[in-house]
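Entry for glycine complex. Fields follow.
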Amino acid sequence: MHTLTLTPPARSVAPTRIVIGDDALSALPDLLSAERTVVLFDQSVEAIAKKAVSSLQNPLMIGVPSGDASKSLEQVERITAQMLGAGCTRKTVIVCIGGGMITDLGGFVAGVFMRGVPCVLVPTTLLGMVDAAIGGKTAVNAGGSKNMIGSVTHPKAVIVDLTLLQSLPAAQVQQGMAEIIKIAAILDQPFFEWLEENIDAVLAMKKEKTEECVIRAVEAKVRTVEADDHDRDVRLLLNFGHTVGHAVEALSGYTLPHGSAISIGMNIEMALSGFADAPRVTALLKKAGLPLELPSAHAKKDLWAAMKTDKKNEDGSVRAAVPQHIGEGKIIALDERVFLSLKP
Ligand code: GLY
């Protein structure tokens, strides 16, 4: 078992314990000494959720429909109403079991219920393990845009149980690879070079390579969040692919999976910035079977309008994080005319 501690920059915020390994879920009961435990789970992983908390006395189980459309204020209201109805208090702990949708939504509920209760995240997808569950960002979608209402609420612990990956469909592995490639391309050159050597083994879920890949991605993200957990500085780089990607995702009505959307986003943002090593990043995205082109159904002017609502924008300019060398990034302003004239 590999254990890391993420220490947020503010001294008043408690560190997050991150446990990675086979059977990491066995660490869960010891983390739950609460009066009451709420288990918020994606309905597609109900069996995993029930098994994970089978030793707990009378947990309040709340299922959430799969899909990003569940990241909504309506779900926050429904979940908090159930918690209040069940007599939950400030001593309640929320365990969130599922992919990025559940950890974003459940983390947000934990941040606002009675002004904050502890939460433990159990990501069940590769994307959740390496990105969504790490670093305290929580959110729901609003106003037709992605992640518009949220908080930075650091969880008490994140349990990354690698045995959950064994039954993950290949399509879900691909989605996680998009975030892994993003992290390596913009933050960690040695990890990127390792991926160029080992991506086939990771895609085939070879045990040792998968474990090394997850640990390296989590370590790179932890280093970044420890330096800046509020997107003021270096954490902004983790938004590589997301300015275009979030707009693509929103225009698809959240039917296009997040990893696919940011793969398209990375490819377009690299083209807009003229990044010389873009073909190396594109080669990895292609190997992972991820899409690179904008869906033809999306008119560029509609995408640009959606990009104008991005949280990173400043002074009326649409901004994006892009690599300037492999493992190093910068923030640039995107030009509307260049974007609109890009070949699809
Ligand atoms: N997913 C981007 C971040 O955590 O900052």
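NOTE: Residues 319 and 333 are 4 Å apart (CA to CA).
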